[in-house]
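I'm curious: can you give me some protein's one-letter sequence along with its backbone structure tokens because I've never seen that pairing?
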Amino acid sequence: MVTKVQESVKVLTAFDDRRLSARPIQMVWNERAYRLGPVDFLHATQKGVERVYHFSLGEAAGGMYMKLAFHSHSMVWVLEEIEDEG
């Protein structure tokens, strides 16, 4: 079941300047930490002057799939939606 969330979250991110890439590693949402698996899909959109990077990925242990957005101008991560396997 897909649930729209649209809440800001804390995300531990690895940035690679050689590849010009970013990879979310861990997310904290509702005071719970989620270890994140590899990114399945990444695309960017433009929202006025701000570039928004959308990441689709799952929890490393399985069980939940999510869409995260990184807003480059405000430097805020937003949990856009989750999909629970249960």
